[in-house]
Amino acid sequence: MDSANLSQAPNTDNSFRFITTQNPESARDPAVRRQVRSHAVKHALQDKRKLERELSANFRPASISAARISVVEKGTQTSQSLGKLYSPLASAYTSPRLEVLISHHAAKEAAEPVFSVANDVAFQTFPLVFRTGRDDPALLNAILLTFALAVTGGIMNQECLGYQNMAMSTIRERISSPDRPVSVATLGAILLLAGVEARLGMPLQVQLHMTAISQLLDLCRASDVYLTDGIKRAIFWQDLNTSVITGSKRVVDHTTFPELQWRRDPFSLNYFILPPGFQDQTHLFTEEFVEVLKDIHALQCIRDSSDFIAEDTLMMVNLDNHHASIESRLAGLPNSSLFSECVHFAAYLCACMLCCKVYRHSVIPSQISAKLLQKLEQVHGDSIWDHWDGQTSCLLWLIFIGGSFAPVGTKSGYIELLRFKYATRFANRYQSWPAVHEVLKQFIWSEKAFSSQVKTFWEDASFVPNANRNFD
């Protein structure tokens, strides 16, 4: 916290009021005593208001009107600049430092997946996740820590440590008090702390906090505490994401909360088919993974459909549940070989990129693409790629999917791997973008969600003989 050293202001001439009396007995007069009491109360209130004004440099709770919440639900406003536009988070906490942090580009997706300030995740906005506890100091400090860490590029400076200490001490005090019920704000603060620890590569701390979440959920069930749909969704995604990043043991899955339940649409069963590129490779995968691939193909069909509207909240909630089912199952599937592990990572990455835009800027795609590159480097000399033509095509798809959604450092590794494959295994094949494009479409592929970044990767890797930058 940004707690300034508050020193008591000296008394002014108006701090005391002298009441003259004729004799000591007059002080006992009821009228005089009421006058003295009124004066004392007046100055006590003045002192209280002064202290509140001084503390407002840190934070001040404010209410969120129903009209403003409806605006956020419709996704008609953003929080790109808190000084100019309405922000649900700013209305919850008026803090100059928070305004500075959240207006920074690096902090835009920092609070994902606990809550979002992006239009395309309108169902997971701050007021919809935290309908109570908007003046909660633990939650505020966890939010400030999350944004401050994003602004510093992942460096825990003194400011970050201050927010972390304040959040953790408040949470400890609250949990140790048996007479204080568990709140959505407390759960949210712990989730944000776990997200920070995952980014810092602290698996033991992540596990500790997610275990605490599991125990608090048990208390909520036993005490019949109401939890918002948004906080349940936040718990699921933060648990899954931190597990993917750090390897922590998961405490919930896609079956834990009824709000995240998903089933295949019986009226769209033609979407749930295996992409043709995988049809000759089903013997290399488990039956469960084949079903997941069908669900990803359906997700791609929905994403590419002309009926897809990102601003449709109900559609996006159902899509999020579809996505949750896919990635939760993928994270728990065993791998029978390095080859199947490579395809698992690529499928997970595709599912991320098929959903709303915030996933593109989260840490998950970069983590998955880095792991996929590591596996591809381990298996690149394996004879599995020589068994039939479909395996070579699958290798091309794996490299392009991983390289297209990789951060700069990892992308160079993919380009180097691709250069080696073109010099050896690919020989004179896939010399033009149309040829590459035709192969990619046989696997998991979305023109809307993938084409821009994949074409950029092709441009970056345009060392291929006779290749050009014409994508028509």
Automatic annotation (TrEMBL):
Coiled coil: none annotated. Residues 1-25 have a biased composition (Polar residues). It comes from Mollisia scopiformis (Conifer needle endophyte fungus). It holds the Pfam family Fungal_trans_2. The lineage of its organism: Eukaryota, Fungi, Dikarya, Ascomycota, Pezizomycotina. Residues 1-32 are annotated as: Disordered. PANTHER family: TRANSCRIPTION FACTOR (ACR-2), PUTATIVE-RELATED-RELATED (PTHR37540), TRANSCRIPTION FACTOR DOMAIN-CONTAINING PROTEIN (PTHR37540:SF5). InterPro entries: Fun_TF. It comes from the Eukaryota. This is Transcription factor domain-containing protein.
